[in-house]
Design goal:
By secondary structure, this protein is an all-alpha fold. It has 3 domains: 22-235, no CATH class; 245-407, no CATH class; 410-494, no CATH class. It has helices at residues 32-48, 57-71, 79-97, 101-120, 125-131, 139-155, 161-185, 187-196, 205-227, 245-265, 267-271, 273-279, 285-290, 293-310, 319-354, 358-383, 389-407, 409-424, 429-433, 440-443, 450-455, 471-482; strands spanning 7-10, 13-16. Strand 1 and strand 2 (13-16) form a beta hairpin. Helix 6 (139-155) crosses helix 9, helix 7 runs antiparallel to helix 8 (187-196) and helix 10 runs parallel beside helix 15. It comes from Rhodococcus oryzae. InterPro entries: DUF4153 (IPR025291). The chain crosses the membrane at residues 55-73, 85-113, 125-144, 164-185, 205-225, 246-271, 291-311, 323-344, 364-382, 389-407.
């Protein structure tokens, strides 16, 4: 997609973006402040961000990109955009607090999605889904936008971005050269110089430059999208034509009946817990927890698909259809919430009996989130208006991930396994070794030799640069310096 040729070939026939999706853009020019801010964002990423190191650099880079997109172009951001941008930065801030790479990865991906929605908005599922790809639709448009901006600056009297970059580079070189000479000449000045100037270690310079270029391009694209926001909702499929009431009411009524019978018959199985396991021959906790868990999870997800199709077939202008839809879909949501509670209950029993793992904790968190989605569906059904629903679901994902980070899954897993070891004497130190530095405070409470076996090989890093700061690593280093890891002996007796 380009500005001059906004069409693509699909199946041998030209395909064009829907009319009105992109605003005509042949004269707008990138502001001087935008170019300077984007250059600064790229420099920050080049000097501070290491993709493989969980650190505060993610937040600093994200803040620089956000500042370029929201503070250097008009119009002024709305309250909703400001809230979404702050939410995206809060997700990036997890990298400065938690050390679990898998959790930080989820938060960074979610931050990209939320930040993209802050830039281009969207009210439909299609619009929100495509928002995260909007940056990749703009390279040619952004290039033309920047070129026109540079051409204007060349003919103007203001400060030119190229001159700013040159002066900045010369200043940095001079400070580093003469500063290093003064540092080697006087120890006291060396200490002062080291405290004032951050320690930036640039490894893999080629990769850093490429990363900085990509971040600069992302910042420019973000500013362009704020200035020339595409209407991605135009790509959403048109609402389907409503059908006769019986065509959707009969299948929903039968499905409600099936759910009701299942819940009624399985009440003792679903919530029997200890008594059900003890009263049933050849039934262990593992069998009970696994028995139908994934099937119940699949039922929950498929029910969302059924509801999504059904609501498109309801005639919302007809009073009878609205009442029937509220009753049938509401009953389906309530019964599905019972299924969600059942799945959570099963997983809880399994975790209490066999210990906690990332997969088990994550699956339980996902089930709880699905329960929240069904509650939102019920609210939308009562109002018979779901225009706000896609954004509410996305917000629930962001809030849920932030809550999950506050919950500290690796730390919680370690705490529960430490408690299980105190109660039963069983512990899987091999699994605990694979946890992140978030687990160190809890594992430190283990008695020896279990403590040393669990903490053996724990990578707490040796962050020397200001931009490599991570609270979890700092705390873990302090603990292990105070109580170094000893020898791991008699590993077979630890379960």
């Amino acid at each position: 997609m380009t500005a001059a040729r906004p069409e693509m070939v699909r199946g041998g026939r030209p395909w064009r973006w829907p009319r009105g999706m992109w605003r005509h853009d042949h004269t707008s020019m990138a502001p001087r402040a935008t170019l300077a801010a984007a250059l600064g964002a790229g420099a920050i990423a080049t000097l501070t961000l290491q993709v493989t190191v969980v650190s505060i650099a993610y937040l600093l880079t994200g803040a620089a990109v956000a500042a370029t997109a929201f503070a250097t172009v008009r119009p002024r951001p709305t309250r909703l955009q400001v809230g979404a941008a702050l939410g995206a930065l809060a997700l990036l801030a997890v990298a400065a607090v938690r050390g679990a790479e898998w959790l930080v990865t989820l938060c960074v991906v979610a931050s990209w999605v939320v930040g993209s929605v802050a830039l281009v908005g969207g009210w439909t599922w299609t619009g929100l889904a495509l928002a995260s790809t909007a940056v990749w639709l703009t390279p040619v448009r952004v290039t033309c936008w920047v070129r026109r901006g540079r051409a204007r600056f060349r003919t103007g009297r203001g400060v030119k971005p190229g001159r700013v970059a040159a002066v900045t580079a010369i200043s940095v070189v001079l400070i580093l050269v003469f500063g290093s000479l003064f540092v080697s000449a006087d120890p006291e000045f060396a200490e002062l110089f080291g405290a004032v100037v951050p320690d930036v270690q640039v490894t893999n310079p080629v990769g850093r430059l490429i990363l900085g270029f990509l971040v600069m391009g992302t910042a420019l694209a973000g500013a362009y999208l704020r200035r020339r926001t595409p209407r991605l909702d135009a790509l959403a499929p048109r609402p389907g034509r409503p059908v006769a009431r019986w065509e959707w009411a009969v299948p929903l009524a039968l499905l409600d009946l099936l759910f009701a019978v299942f819940v009624a018959v399985q009440v003792r199985v679903l919530f029997g817990g200890d008594e059900h396991v003890q009263d049933t021959d050849d039934l262990t906790y593992a069998d009970y927890a696994r028995q139908g868990f994934w099937q119940l999870t699949a039922v929950t997800v498929l029910t969302l698909a059924v509801i999504a199709v059904a609501v498109r077939k309801v005639d919302r202008q007809d009073q009878g259809d609205r009442v029937s839809a509220r009753l049938l879909l509401g009953a389906l949501c309530v019964l599905t919430l019972v299924i969600v509670a059942s799945a959570v209950h099963r997983m809880s029993l399994y975790e209490n009996e066999f210990g906690f793992t990332r997969l088990r904790v994550s699956v339980m968190a996902t089930e709880l989130w699905l329960g929240v989605v069904f509650v939102l569906l019920m609210v939308a059904g009562v109002r018979m208006s779901g225009r706000w629903l896609p954004r509410a679901v996305l917000a629930s994902v962001a809030v849920g991930l932030l809550g999950f980070a506050v919950f500290n899954p690796d730390g919680y897993i370690a705490e529960r396994n430490v408690q299980r070891y105190a109660d039963t004497g069983n512990i899987d130190v091999g699994y605990l070794r694979g946890l992140s530095v978030d687990a160190v405070p809890a594992l430190d409470r283990l008695p020896e030799p279990a403590r040393s076996c669990a903490l053996l090989g724990m990578d707490v890093g040796d962050d020397t640069g200001l931009f490599e700061y991570n609270h979890a690593r700092v705390r873990a280093r302090e603990i292990l310096r105070a109580r170094p890891v000893g020898e791991c002996t008699d590993l077979s007796s630890l379960g």
